[in-house]
Amino acid sequence: SGAPRPRLSFLGTGYLGATYAICFAELGYEVIGFDIDEAKIAKLAGGAVPFHEPGLDELLRRNLQSGRLRFSTSYAETADFADVHFICVGTPQRADGMGADLRYVEASVTNLAQHLSRKALIVGKSTVPVGTAEWIEQLVSKHAPAELGVEVAWSPEFLQEGFAVEDVLRPNRIVVGVKSDWANGMLYAAHKGVFDLAATEDREVPLVVTDFATAELVKVAANAFLATKISFINAMAEVCEVAGGDVTQLAKAIGYDPRIGNRFLQAGVGFGGGCLPKDIRAFQARAQELGAGEALRFLHEVDLINLRRRTRVVTLAAELLGRRHGPAGPDLSGTRIAVLGAAFKPNSDDVRDAPSLAVAAALAKAGADVRVYDPEGMGNAQLAQPDLTYTGSMVEAVTGAELVCVLTEWAEFRNADPVQIGELVANKRVIDGRNCLDATLWAQAGWQYRGMGRPQPR
Ligand code: UGA
């Protein structure tokens, strides 16, 4: 309403960039999505979202039709089209396993800068080590025509897979790191659609305007906090396991304190995905480089607690199946195990660093005949772990199994009928790796039930 809106580009149409491009077109902006991957761009331009995200397909088609949204593999076209360019390319874990690999950031910024022919704002969004915005500024001053006065800013994103559309349209905050009033004004205009939508719904979206370093740190600090919260409750689960307590009740009880809060206190097989595990490692590496390694040493412990949950499932499996631990771990040869879940969380087809797949692989390595099923993640799982055996349905996975492990809390598994499943398996043993089943119901149906950090039901 009123002031003209800047035209926006999103460079990198992976999960992050594609979602933003589509949602900002929905908010009324003229948007271009850029990627070097022609197949990806062709797919998006044809109205197909290349990954699973609820609600996004419909928004893509609607905004392609409206003409507000286009896709391109041309840096020249992208540079020419937009006033504000968001860098959304991937920042994978480096081969050494710790720091972030910035080659895609470097390539996209360099190429974009070389093609610019008027003043523009380049905004970093990818998750990066603190200091990257300053480095991008140097890249820009080296590659963009000096007389244009191209500027840089930083604006982290906090979207969760499965809720990405809501998280972009209705974020709980917007953070911008800027160095000038011009950049601040451009970024405000670039987010005005978000503020306007909030106003029509009688909400407010807090805006935090800060420096580059803080804006970059906000992102990794938030993810480090969330990872710590999950590992905290999983540490409590470990203690509950030896003390005979119930971590689900403990979480509920401490969560009533608003200073603690009840969200992200779900004990289980731990966190996975493309963000939390990678981010806490990269954050430690960066702090180390900056001479503040000690400050983040606890994140190493957070990582270890998280990985121990995976081992715990394997140990529990051996225990339930009556197998002994050898020096090299349990021997599960000759056993049949159904693993329900491959995605790192429900409502996602993402299997990156998924605890479920890691556990399935460990069970198979221990000699078990493992059958994996996931409602959405099968394609990605087959690519990531081609040696595992996959089935086309839950029924197929559990038929003949001596143990069922529920490792991703899909509704299909949560709502499964223990009586019906019980008729298919060879032995009624279940590990509820997400504490998502009704323990009493399963026990009543004759199952030996084991949760994570909770006693056996009576
Ligand atoms: C996470 C953050 O939640 C987002 O805010 C952030 O923007 C995003 O990373 C990112 O950096 O891009 P996401 O990876 O989609 O989002 O997934 P989460 O919902 O955070 O779940 C992460 C993992 O933690 C999952 O494996 C989930 O099963 C696990 N988890 C979550 C638990 O084990 N317990 C909980 O209580 C909550």
From TrEMBL:
Official protein name in the record: UDP-glucose 6-dehydrogenase
Residues annotated as catalytic: C275
Gene Ontology biological process terms from the UniProt entry: polysaccharide biosynthetic process; UDP-glucuronate biosynthetic process
Which InterPro entries does the entry mention? 6-PGluconate_DH-like_C_sf (IPR008927), NAD(P)-bd_dom_sf (IPR036291), UDP-Glc/GDP-Man (IPR017476), UDP-Glc/GDP-Man_DH_C (IPR014027), UDP-Glc/GDP-Man_DH_C_sf (IPR036220), UDP-Glc/GDP-Man_DH_dimer (IPR014026), UDP-Glc/GDP-Man_DH_N (IPR001732), UDPglc_DH_bac (IPR028357)
- Which pathway? Nucleotide-sugar biosynthesis; UDP-alpha-D-glucuronate biosynthesis; UDP-alpha-D-glucuronate from UDP-alpha-D-glucose: step 1/1
Reaction(s) catalysed by this chain, per the record, are: UDP-alpha-D-glucose + 2 NAD(+) + H2O = UDP-alpha-D-glucuronate + 2 NADH + 3 H(+)
Enzyme Commission number:
1.1.1.22
- Kindly list the GO molecular function terms attached to this UniProt entry: NAD binding; UDP-glucose 6-dehydrogenase activity
Residues binding substrate: F158, L159, Q160, E161, K219, F264, L265, Q266, A267, G268, G272, K345
Keywords assigned by UniProt? Answer: NAD, Oxidoreductase
**Family per similarity comment:** Belongs to the UDP-glucose/GDP-mannose dehydrogenase family.
Q: Which residues form the UDP-glucose/GDP-mannose dehydrogenase C-terminal domain?
A: 338-439
